[in-house]
Write a structure and sequence with these properties.
Rossmann fold; five-stranded parallel beta sheet; elongated; disordered N terminus
Length: 334
């Protein structure tokens, strides 16, 4: 018998894949229905794709890493739904990710998106209303499946079209993780990251520094965000802060992030100590204060003169200084 047979196209889906246990299980649940799954993970200066990359490799999931910093920063400055406990704009963040993943879905001709979200696991961002808002505002409402809680949520388009068997999806809810642990055992998944951590915007100390950056430098760059991850940050005045290394790792990071023609780098000339950085420079009076703070955290003797070497571009300035008082500097730490 000649001729060609019509081939049934396989259903394709995109997983928003964080690399945590829930996202791994969601991918497994969907893959079990003979659906082709591609993972997508987003990265910015506030979170990376390392955990997702390791988890995807472990379960053999193709993974696309997309940097969204350019779109993310404007949203972070003025999130429509505000921040969580710190500087985490969870609802706006999830909306953006689903919107961008939806565009990728259309680009590759996939049938739907899905996430590892569990109803009620995070009371503020994973309740029914929040999940609905995120889906609606992403402009892909109806194409977003939450496999781990699907039976507790309205049917999605891929379910009504028969591309996904709703009966094989889950009805997990709440903050307990007993069901997920049981599923992990069934799938033979023994290594996975803890559910906490991963996003610097949920960290109180980092959030405080980020707020200070937003308040004092409207034209900040990605470099300025990277600096927030290292050293002590000391706000000397409205125009100037200094970043002081706490260890060799910090010192190396500060040196690498310094900009030769914009910043002032301060180190003590005759005593071991930190690298201090005045981003975008400062006036002479402020530089004197910065040098005394650098001396404080060095091995220079208290109440004795020491020489601070201050470098900007090819210019070197030597400042004779005494260590600042610790109780005064403590008040300035961000």
């Amino acid at each position: 018998m000649g001729g060609k047979f019509n081939k049934i196209l396989k259903v394709k889906a995109i997983a928003l894949f964080s690399g945590g246990l829930d996202s791994i299980l969601a991918a497994k649940v969907v893959q079990e229905q003979d659906i082709d799954v591609m993972g997508v993970v987003f990265e910015t200066p506030f979170f990376d794709a390392l955990r997702a990359g390791k988890a995807a490799k472990m379960i053999g999931l193709p993974l696309l890493v997309i940097n969204i910093t350019e779109e993310y920063i404007p949203m972070l400055k003025t999130p429509r739904y505000g921040y969580g406990r710190n500087m985490n704009p969870c609802i706006d963040c999830h909306t953006m990710m689903l919107s961008l993943a939806g565009k990728k879905m259309e680009e590759i001709g996939a049938d739907f998106l899905f996430t590892g979200e569990v109803l009620g696991q995070r009371p503020m961002s994973q309740n029914k209303q929040a999940l609905h808002i995120v889906a609606k505002n992403s402009e892909y409402d109806g194409f977003i499946l939450r496999p781990l809680s699907a039976k507790l949520l309205p049917e999605t388009i891929p379910e009504t079209e028969g591309k996904v068997d709703r009966g094989k999806l889950c009805d997990i809810q709440g903050r307990g993780r007993k069901r997920q642990m049981e599923m992990a055992k069934e799938y033979g998944i023994t290594r996975y990251a803890s559910p906490a951590g991963g996003c610097l915007l949920t960290d109180p100390a980092f959030s405080k520094r980020l707020r200070d950056l937003f308040d004092h430098r409207k034209d900040f760059k990605i470099r300025d965000i990277e600096l927030l991850k290292s050293g002590r940050h000391i706000r000397i005045d409205e125009k100037t802060k200094i970043v002081i290394g706490r260890n060799r790792k910090d010192n190396a990071a500060i040196r690498n992030l310094s900009e030769e023609n914009r910043d002032i780098v301060i180190e003590m000339k005759h005593f071991p100590g930190p690298v201090a950085l005045a981003p975008y420079g400062c006036d002479d009076e402020t530089l004197d204060r910065a040098a005394s703070i650098c001396a404080l955290y060095s091995d220079a003797p208290d109440n004795e003169d020491a020489i601070a070497e201050c470098r900007m571009a090819m210019e070197v300035k030597l400042i004779s200084t005494k260590a600042a008082k610790r109780e005064d500097v403590k008040k300035l730490i961000i």
